[in-house]
Structures are given as structure tokens and as C-alpha cells.
Amino acid sequence: MKAFIMNMLLIHFLQMNTPVPRDIPIPLPLPEWLLVVLLVFSFLLHIVFVNLMVGGSMVTLWAEIKGLKNKAYDTLAYEVARTITVNKSLAVVLGVAPLLSINALYTIYFYSANALTGLMWILIIPLVAVAFLLTYLHKYTWHSMAHLKRLHIAIIGASVLLFLFIPLIFLVNINLMLFPEKWSSIHGFISALFLPNVFPRYLHFIFASLAVTGLFLFWYVGRKNYPFETIFPADISRYDVKKIAYSLTLGASVIQFLIGPIVLISLPSKGFGWGLLSIILTGASLALIAMWWIWKALIGPKEAINRRFGAIVILMSITVLFMGSGRHTYRANALDPHRQLMAEKTAAFEKLSEEARMHPQQSNTAEVVDSSLGTVAKGAALFKTNCSICHQKDTKLVGPPITEMVSIYKNNISGLEQWIKAPGKKRPDYPQMPTLSQLSDADRAELAKYILSIQ
Fold this sequence. Notes:
mainly alpha, Cytochrome Bc1 Complex, Chain D, domain 2, 18 helices, 71% helix, 0% strand
């Protein structure tokens, strides 16, 4: 009962303070439940590679800076840098499906957020292009710029800044679409950026990227066919790199746990429910088990570093799945009251539209008949009332000029009458002519007679 009352109060608040547009009455291309499944799973695949792209670029920058004094870290930076371009390509390709899914499921909300952030949203494309070019430049000039290390580091540094900024734009937009009650107070990207929950969510994403990158690095250097000893200098072992990777994952995960409650507190309560909290707590519990196993591996003997790696990856993957499901659950809960209002408004509009089509209003404006025109006076009056907005004598307006009609129907008045009764579409450069259903057969005859009298 309490939840029902709160929901009614929220709907009342939305009615008073929130713009409620009409929905687009187009059926979904797939069942809604299937689109939701596609959205959640495709987004998770996409975000994993975004994490690897962002986290990998940060690790590369850190390792290359340390590599100025320790050659082993420079080698590590190069090995991670080689993966960034691949991961960024997979991130882009895998981003198509969630983008299409969220467009279909939340069209009004997604495009409203895009419109409100305007220029910054459009800038994503050139920013991504520049960031990608920088990563390629950094990767393929590694050896040729060996004596220009600081300039080379500056290249990856610029790429890191872009890779950090681009997800922030996405996050601001996705966040803004959840709060239609805020739309009237948003005046561009900056004001949307400072909504209370943006930066906690952003920091959570950054450390998630580092945690995922740590697991990826552990697997990457641990492959049986990876020639570690021939790539890295002798003063660093495979175990050392694995320990660095695990430490990165554990440290980033701990910070995520500290930021997580701030994220929850900063989110408006309208999207919360026991179902959402159970999803989040279950995912967090699984992550704690994985973190404990990582800790045991770090403090254990060297030969035990690989123990439970597969189980850790599985638990972390399930955690990501729970968090992705929780994200969608919050979105659905938060938007449900507004979607109800929008559905009501859309239904009311469609009802009025149907009534208007079924019972068209008759114009009360009488045609002004100029008797000096003789036998075509009635037709001239009808043309002025019904046709002059689209047609002129010898100038193309919305439709073709009258002289063109005369050239086509000069000796075919019945054909012109039939066209006026049931117009089609002959040419792609003219719009479809509306049916003049308000005219009688006698009116159409008078109208055709007038048109063909024009010289």
C-alpha cells in the first residue's frame, strides 16, 4: 500500500513539473522482453571491451612512465599497447547492438538526452576518431620513437585523456535520460554533468576498467603459448607480472566497493526496490568471494598464483551480469511512472486523431465567388479555398504549377476530375497530394473546368 501511495505521489509530481511528450506509435521490431535481453547482454559484452580499452590505455601510460627507469615496465607497456587497438575495435563493433536496442526501447528518452547535451554528443565521433588515430600512432612508432620517449608518452597521454572523456559523455547522456523531471533545468552538457550521481558512477566505471584490465593482463601473459621469456628482460618474471595484474584487479575492486554505496546514495530513490537491492547485493557477494581468492593468491606461494583463476573470472563475470541487470532494473523502475503518463497522453492523442478522421469538420468559410469570371467563377472560388496554398499559375510551389496541369489534361477534363477525387503520386520531387474528400462531384467538375481555362 505504501509503495502504491508513493507511486501515485511520484506520478502527481511528474504531472506538475515534467514535460510529457507523446510517444512514437510505432511497434517494436522484436518483443520487448527479447530487446531487453539483447540490451543487457550486448551492453555487457560492449562494456567489457570498453573497460579493456580505457584500462589498457591507463596501464600503458603508467608502465611506460615507469619504463623510463626500468626496461621491464617499458616492455610491459608495449605488450599492453599492442592490445588496445584490437580491444577498441571490438568495443566499437559490439556497441552497435546495445545502441540500437536502447534506441528502440527508450526512443523518446534517449533522443531527448542527446538533444539536451547537443554539441558534446555530436563531438563523440571526431573525438573517437582522434583517440583511435593516436593509439595507432603510439603503437606503430614505438621503436622509431625510442629516443623520443617523452613525446611518445605524450601521445598515449593524449589518447588516455580522450578515452577518459568519451565515456563520460556517454554516461552523462544515459544518466540524463533516466530523469525527465530534470530536463527543464538542463541547459547543455555542463549542467547535465553536474547532476549529483554522475561523478560517482563515472569513478565506479574507471575502477571497473582497471579491475577488468588486471584480469585480462593476468590471462594474457599467462597463456602457455605466450613467449614471456623471449619478450621480457630477465629481471622480471611471469609471476611478477601476474602479481602486478592481480594487485591491480584487487585494488580497483576494493575502491569500487567504497564508491558503490556513494553511487547508490546519489541515485534518486524513485528507481529503487527490493528486487534491485537483491540483485546488487548478490553480485557484490560474489565479487567479495573472488576478491578473497585473489588476495589468497597474492599472499600464497608462487606456484599457487594460478589457482582458482578460472573460478575468479566466472564469479567476476556473473557479478558484471548482475550489475548490468541491476542497471536495467533501476532504469525500468525510474522511468515507469513517466512512461505511464506518456502512454496516457499518447492514447488520448490517438483517440482525438481517430475522432477527427471519422468526423472531419466542415469548413464554415463560404467561397467568395467573383461573378465577373462567368462560367468558371465557382471553380475559381473552390481553387482559392482548397488548392491555392499548394499551386500557382506558372510557379512550382508545393505542387506543380497550373500550366503543367493544363498541358497534361488539356483535352481530358474527366481525367482531371478523377485525379482530384483520388490523387496518387507520380513524381518523387513532389509530395503526395491529399484527398479532397470534402468536395462533391459537382465541385470537382467546376474545379477542373476552372483549371483547364487557365492559359
